[in-house]
Amino acid sequence: MKRFFGNKQGDNIIFEEGEAQHIRQVLRMQVGDKLIGLLNDENNYYCTITEITKQKVVAVIDEVKTCPANPQKEIVLMQAMPKREYFENIVTKTIELGVSSIVPFISRWTVNHEYKKERINTIVATACKQCERSKLVEVTGVVKFNDMLAKLKEFDVVLFANEKETKDFNLTALKSYNKIAIVVGCEGGFAEDEIEAIKLTGATSVSLGKRILRCDTATVAMMSVVNILSGN
Predict the structure, then answer these.
(1) Which domains does the chain have, with CATH numbers?
(2) Cβ contact 220:175 at 8 Å
(3) pLDDT tens for the 232 residues of the chain, in order
(4) What is the DSSP letter of 140?
(5) How does DSSP assign 9-28, residue by residue?
(6) In 3D, which of 155, 147, 146, 125 has the Cα closest to residue 137?
(7) What values do phi and psi take at 153, rounded to 5?
(8) Within 13 Å, how many C-alpha atoms sit on residue 157's CB side?
């Protein structure tokens, strides 16, 4: 059943703009057809279309169920800003893997210092619908390196993807943590003083093996391991 984000009015969900256009013109759905409405909360709203106009689509709510695809743990990605195509791929794939929110930040070797909010919002909504999540993932504004460090104290455990790390870490302990942060660098990695600054916060430095991974590959690898081993 197709999924669309809308706004609740009484017992109905109203779909407008791009969502209404997709329902009406792309899928050519009709009055009486079924869909799942999403209100950016923990639920799936099973609906029947009752009205279609050029401006909106109206659907009555038939049943409400908790969405099983939303994360069970709070996993936040602290991502040093990479090139646009890498960042967009990171947003899409980490949403599929259960990330709760994404905090892009500027590090020493960061070249790209911003992203297009409207485009990323579209990518977030598309990714959430594709993997059947009902709640949108927040991608914050780009923060400075020191501001990112300050946020790390909010978590039960912080995992730092460090290409220079040689020691092993027992990732099976992740099941006991509910708030997990992951720190990953951009294409150029981190400067030595940045590596030390991250470690000084108490972050656990984690090796991803002897091969050097592209930044978006490293992020997906970290999210995959954390997602599975934390029970997310």
Answers:
(1) 3-66 (2.40.240.20), 74-229 (3.40.1280.10)
(2) no
(3) 999 999 999 999 999 999 999 999 999 999 999 999 999 999 999 999 999 999 999 999 999 999 999 999 999 999 999 999 999 999 999 999 999 999 999 999 998 999 999 999 999 999 999 999 999 999 999 999 999 999 999 999 999 998 888 776 777 788 899 999 999 999 988 999 999 999 999 999 998 888 888 999 999 999 999 999 998 8
(4) P
(5) ETTEEEEEHHHHHIIIIIS-
(6) 125
(7) -70, -10
(8) 19
Q: Which amino acid is at 71?
A: P
Type of residue at 62? D
- Burial of 43-58, coded b for 16+ CB within 10 Å and e otherwise, reads bbbbbebeebeeebbb
C-alpha closest to that of 77 among 106, 110, 108, 99? 99
CA pair distance 184, 78, nearest whole angstrom: 6
Pairing assessment for the beta strands 56-66 and 143-144 based on DSSP bridges: unpaired
pTM: 0.92
